[in-house]
Write a structure and sequence with these properties.
Layout lengths: L2 E6 L4 E6 L4 E6 L5 H6 L2 H13 L5 H13 L7 H16 L3 E14 L3 E7 L3 E2 L2 E3 L11 E8 L2 H5 L3 H4 L3 E4 L6 H16 L5 E5 L25 E4 L1 H12 L5 E6 L2 E15 L9 E7 L9 H20 L8 E6 L7 H9 L4 H4 E6 L7 E7 L2 H11 L7 E5 L8 H5 L4 E6 L4 H4 L12 H20 L15
Parallel strand pairs: 8-9, 9-10, 10-11, 14-15, 14-16, 16-19, 17-18
Antiparallel strand pairs: 1-2, 2-3, 4-13, 5-6, 5-12, 7-11, 8-12, 13-15, 17-19
Helix pairs in contact: 2-15, 3-9, 3-15, 9-15
């Protein structure tokens, strides 16, 4: 195995990385006595794991997640189901004795799917399972019937003339290369096609594997381009249409979508705390996930699992009588699926004193299947401290260190210099079910959730209780 040694003299830190990015050893010159201080938390960390993984709290994170998703189902932004779920979380956190339980309002988008369908009508009839993309406009009442053009990439589409595209339904069938790179097509395809006169877009679902399931998600319209309807179809159907188009087959599709963008509405970010015994409203450690989901499945993996590992981490610490120096604040974001609207408004409301208010942000939003460690973002001095904390987490050996972005809702804070932590998860099949009817409790395992909750609770507790803050280099917030 090839090793790369990187010396960070400015941070008085040397880290050894494997080529896969996992920290395997470290030699950090920390402030006097800090390494010994961190090592003394081992019995506390072991106790947290024992109580949650094999003690009285074993299985309770999964059971709570099960009851929640069965009770409220999908929680699309703007729906009563989401707001009822928020009310429930508030009531339960108060009953569990958490501190300062409350909500903070956020004006958010309000999109409704309505009825929808797509059908290939020529050269043969075939139902095309589909899901309209979030924030898409609908079709006229009679739907849209149009000839199909199919391409694999934006580059291929650019070779088509306006005359070739005008009045057509464009199918984009990009090869899956990862959610970031391939995700561009979900965000941009509608406006790219509309610029050349297309009347609608059908998009290959954002997934590496399919059994005939469409995957939804939000698009982004260019404000200077006419808005056209856009929907995701299955991988199988997108590739079928691409092959037939390349053979020269003429295809006609009928698309009907009742989607509508309503006036913005009020939702809420949900907060509950384990108040620090020394620092109550400064140097807060945030643990978080997002409460909203799409309107398919029950949003167990995306992201009720992230909500409940954050929620129960704080509740179990409270029940164990562990109160750190600094406050641990659980935040359940609203409207994450709508361009992070809830987190963005929370950031704006807390911008004035944020350097004093916050220390570290945690977020779980990549599934909760089988944790192997954590991804940490921060300056080099912060990385050194976190590397020592990571040593306490017995059984977890994959920890990555970066000065880049981790998390989605917390991304703006991390991008401006606050330390951030996200879950490193084996979850190889996450995007098989992502934003589909298949995102249900059946994806979650009680034992895995216990281990994740314990990892989340123990790491947050140690960071919140250290004698020093995790170092940060914060760029001032500016509202745009």
């Amino acid at each position: 195995m090839f090793w790369l040694k990187v010396a960070f003299t400015s941070a008085l830190c040397t880290l050894l990385f494997a080529t896969n990015g996992f920290v395997t050893a470290n030699e950090c010159e920390l402030p006097s006595g800090l390494r010994e201080e961190i090592a003394q938390y081992q019995p506390v960390v072991d106790s947290i794991f024992q109580h949650i993984v094999s003690g009285e709290y074993a299985g309770k994170t999964w059971q709570s997640l099960l009851e929640f998703t069965d009770r409220f189902g999908p929680r699309l932004t703007g729906t009563k189901q989401l707001e009822d779920a928020i009310d429930y979380a508030v009531q339960e956190m108060i009953a569990e004795g958490l501190d300062n339980v409350h909500t903070e309002e956020a004006i958010v988008s309000h999109w409704q799917r309505g009825r929808e369908w797509a059908e290939l009508v020529e050269p043969f009839k075939k139902n095309l399972p589909m899901l309209g993309l979030g924030k898409s406009v609908g079709t006229p009442p009679e739907g849209i019937t149009g000839e199909v053009i199919a391409v694999e990439s934006f580059e291929e589409f650019e070779q088509l003339t306006v005359d070739q595209v005008m009045g057509k339904i464009v199918v984009f069938a990009p090869a899956w290369t990862g959610y970031g790179a391939t995700g561009r097509y979900r965000y941009e395809s509608a406006s790219v096609a509309a610029k050349k006169g297309a009347v609608a877009v059908l998009l290959r679902s954002m997934t590496p594997f399919s059994i005939g399931s469409p995957h939804t998600g939000t698009l982004r319209y260019d404000p200077d381009v006419h808005r056209i309807p856009a929907a995701a179809i299955t991988v199988e159907d997108a590739m079928l249409l691409l092959r037939k188009f390349r053979r020269g087959d003429k295809m006609i599709v009928h698309l009907k979508m009742e989607a509508i963008n309503l006036d913005p509405t009020i939702s809420r970010n949900t907060i509950g705390e384990l108040e620090g015994h020394t620092f109550k409203n400064t140097s807060v450690v945030v643990v978080s996930g997002h409460m909203d989901s799409w309107d398919v499945g029950t949003g167990a993996s995306d992201d009720a699992g992230g909500v409940f590992v954050s929620w129960k981490a704080v509740s179990f610490l409270k029940a164990m009588g562990l109160r750190p120096r600094r406050t641990i604040r659980a935040i359940f974001w609203t409207a994450e699926e709508q361009y992070l609207e809830g987190a963005s408004i929370y950031e704006r409301y807390h911008a004035e004193d944020e350097k004093q208010e916050f220390n570290v942000f945690f977020e779980s939003d990549t599934g909760t299947v089988e944790a192997t460690g954590l991804d940490f973002s921060g300056n080099l001095a912060a990385q050194c401290i976190f590397a020592e904390v990571a040593k306490l987490m017995t059984g977890f050996n994959e920890f990555t260190f970066t000065e880049g972005i981790v998390g989605s809702d917390i991304g703006k804070w991390v991008g401006r210099g606050f330390p951030g932590v996200s879950l490193r998860d084996v979850n190889k099949n996450y995007f098989w079910y992502h934003h589909t009817e298949g995102d249900t409790i059946e994806l979650e395992d009680p034992v895995a959730l216990d281990k994740i909750t314990a990892l989340w609770a123990a790491t947050a507790y140690v960071i919140a209780d250290l004698s020093i803050d995790i170092p940060k280099n914060v760029v001032d917030y500016s509202y745009q």
